[in-house]
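Exercise 7. Predict the structure of 3-isopropylmalate dehydrogenase from Aquamicrobium terrae.
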Amino acid sequence: AAKKLFLLPGDGIGPEAMAEVKKLIAVMNKAGAGFETDEGLVGGSAYDAHGQAISEADMEKALAADAVLFGAVGGPKWDAVPYEVRPEAGLLRLRKDLELFANLRPAICYPALAASSSLKQEVIEGLDILIVRELTGGVYFGEPKQIIDLGNGQKRGIDTQVYDTFEIERIAGVAFELARTRNNHVTSMEKRNVMKSGVLWNEVVTATHKAKYSDVKLDHMLADAGGMQLVRWPKQFDVIVCDNLFGDMLSDVAAMLTGSLGMLPSASLGAPDAKTGKRKALYEPVHGSAPDIAGKGIANPIAMIASFAMCLRYSFNMVVEADRLEKAISAVLDEGYRTGDIMSEGMKQVGTAEMGDAIMAK
Ligand code: NAI
Ligand code: MG
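Solution. The predicted structure, encoded as tokens:
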């Protein structure tokens, strides 16, 4: 069967980075990979075309695809558009309608970049961890969520942390399954010492482990201690699983162990389809539309290309090809190719297309 990819390049450097992935897809198709691609509009470019951050027709295509490749959205041009149709609304709609509850953020330190990092080399060299963040529940969505006027000159801001058993079970399941394809070790982080949802999180992860994944090593860590350990000695981790809020913070901390925003890929996965077993999925770089460098041909395409590698791995089980692509990125960095954001002394500074071409040649 054809492998259906839906491309949403978006705004700013999104299309520039996506162009490098399109070259890769074309070359892979020549070799018989069988990708069928279609492309739509999202974010500011969609708003300019038809007044919505994503059209219904494009939403249908996203829902029908095996995987969505997303560039980036936003920019100063759309700062004043109405809230419901702001560029980010397109991404939020995709996450919601595709029910993407699991956000995967790898933190990999490429050997060639370890030496020029401002962090201790022995701490980050060879780092390869994966943070699995719950994306659709927790304090970002729990009700009540409001600001109440207390009438005495005081107000009260309320957010509510809510997790049900099924939400914890399914995110834990994703973490354990991914650990089996890696180093077979999951660390679950919560704050059971002060939060009831943390107590439940710990219980459900433990029960899920016992019922279905006892071959995987499981550790529990309080999330604040986990943050400290992530900075002190990150190589102790393989897969970290945590709720939406802790995952947001811990994945940003982990990201900065590895260098530039321009290097960081991500994946968001949904539940497996009852009939086909396939998960809905969206792959995107962590960075935004970078208006400050957009249109100059200098953006780093590695985050987008590495996101495509994740797509090959998780949506199409093309493990050999994913490994090969990731090794090509590493090899090109070894040879000294650098975009401006990761440039250091004595290296070869190149633009977006040259970096993409170098990776493709490898
Ligand atoms: P940003 O990630 O776009 O840029 C932050 C800084 O990193 C900038 O100096 C930029 O030039 C640099 N940078 C980012 N990606 C790079 C790459 N691939 N190569 C080289 N340098 C890179 O974040 P910022 O500036 O906070 O937001 C800009 C716009 O992007 C805003 O409209 C924001 O709302 C949107 N945004 C969109 C996201 C998405 O589409 N998922 C995520 C984050 C921000
Ligand atoms: Mg964040």
